[in-house]
Amino acid sequence: MPFLSQQKNFKGIGFIENSFQKIIKKDFQKLNLLFVGGSFDTSVNLLINYINENCKINLPDNLKIYVDKSIYINLKNNKDVFLFDFDIDSLSFIDLIVSRAGLGIISDCVMNKIPIFYIKDINYEIQFNSKVIDNLIIGQEFNENNNMIDLINIFSSVKSKYQNSFNDLNKDGVFQFVSIIKNILNGKNNC
């Protein structure tokens, strides 16, 4: 799968800018988003680049965006975007994580009952982990056809489904997580 910027109809920074303008005009409940991303070329990086270039986004008060401090160390101070430090900050107030489907972030999501909108990647491990998320029903793909307003609308409509999945995981969530990984590896799952 090619990187997002190489895919057909990818809209880039202008697409994100339009999304922010729609968010500003839209009413929705309080939402704390955490974007975790690396050097890969995804909408997460486009979002961060847009924020760096345009420090006055003026997001509504009920939307807060957090980004991984260890990755975005050069992010400019901004009243709408906050640095999140995994070493000292608690995930308890985060409502949704947008990230690649890394095993560590999936574990954080399971332990803290936070849905994840994952970004597909050509990396085999990330593709495998995406199957784990789909099987646990704790998140879904977030791709180049989605923008920020789509993310909020989709999350609002499926939030209760993910909450039910986390309730089903309950205290043995980590064991179910490992069990699903084993089943996929053993070919017992139709993913």
Write the layout of secondary structure elements.
Layout: H1 12-25, E1 31-36, H2 43-53, E2 63-68, E3 81-84, E4 96-100, H3 103-112, E5 116-119, H4 124-136, E6 139-141, H5 148-169, H6 173-185
Parallel strand pairs: 1-2, 1-4, 2-3, 4-5, 5-6
Please, could you describe this protein's structure?
The protein is α/β, with parallel strands linked by helices and 191 residues long. 43% of the residues lie in helices and 15% in strands. The chain has a 6-stranded parallel sheet with strand order 3-2-1-4-5-6, with helices on both faces. The chain starts with 11 loop residues before the first helix and ends in a 6-residue tail after the last helix.
Q: Largest sheet, if any? A: 6 strands, parallel
In the residues, how many domains can be counted? 1
Biggest sheet strand line-up = 3-2-1-4-5-6
Count the strands? 6
* CATH architecture label name: 3-Layer(aba) Sandwich
Stated plainly, the CATH topology is called: Rossmann fold
N-to-C SSE string, H for helix and E for strand = HEHEEEHEHEHH
Query: What is the structural class?
Result: alpha/beta
Q: CATH-wise, what's the superfamily?
A: Glycogen Phosphorylase B
Helix fraction by DSSP (H/I, runs of at least 4): 40-55%
Q: Shape from CA axes? A: globular
Cα-to-Cα separation, first versus last residue:
17 Å
